[in-house]
Design brief:
The structure is a single chain. The protein has helices at 7-14, 62-75, 80-84, 88-94, 104-124, and strands spanning 27-32, 39-47, 50-59. The protein is an alpha+beta fold. The chain has a three-stranded antiparallel beta sheet with strand order 1-2-3. The longest helix has 21 residues, at 104-124.
Length: 126
C-alpha cells in the first residue's frame, strides 16, 4: 500500500526550512531511531530564554526530514519552556498529518528539541 503524505509534509520534504548547521549554537543534539536508522541533528540559538533560531540536518525517510523541518518552524520564537513542551501531535498537525507507519518521525523531532534544550541547560548551568 502506498503511503500518502499531505501536500504540506511533501513541501517540507522538498523544501526543508532551516536546513543546515549553525556555528556557535547555544544548544545542540543528535538523536537516532535505532529501529529505522533515522537521525536528526538540531542546533538552537537561545537568547533571553527564547529560541531565536533553529537549524537541522536529518537523514531518513520523507517524514523524518519533514518533521525536522516543521519543528524548527514551531520552536523558533518560543520561550524555551514552551519549546520543550512541543508534542508529537503539534508536529503532526503542522505537517497536515502523516501516514500511520511514519508517525515515529514526530517523536524523533520532538526528542531532538528536548535534547538540544537539555544541552543548553547544561552549558548555562541551569
Amino acid at each position: 500500500m502506498a503511503e500518502i503524505y499531505s501536500e504540506i509534509a511533501l513541501d517540507h520534504f522538498r523544501n526543508p526550512r532551516n536546513a543546515g548547521t549553525m556555528q556557535h549554537a547555544d544548544g545542540a543534539a543528535t538523536v537516532e531511531n535505532p529501529a529505522s536508522g533515522a537521525v536528526v541533528s538540531l542546533q538552537l540559538r537561545i537568547v533571553h530564554e527564547r529560541v531565536e533560531r533553529a537549524k537541522f540536518q536529518a537523514q531518513g525517510c520523507t517524514a523524518t526530514i519533514a518533521a525536522a523541518s516543521a519543528i524548527t518552524e514551531i520552536v523558533s520564537g518560543l520561550p524555551v519552556a514552551a519549546a520543550a513542551a512541543v508534542t508529537r501531535a503539534d508536529v503532526e498537525a503542522r505537517l497536515g498529518g502523516l501516514p500511520p507507519t511514519r508517525k515515529h518521525a514526530t517523536a524523533l523531532a520532538r526528542d531532538a528539541v528536548r535534547a538540544a534544550i537539555a544541552d543548553f541547560r547544561t552549558r548555562v548551568g541551569v
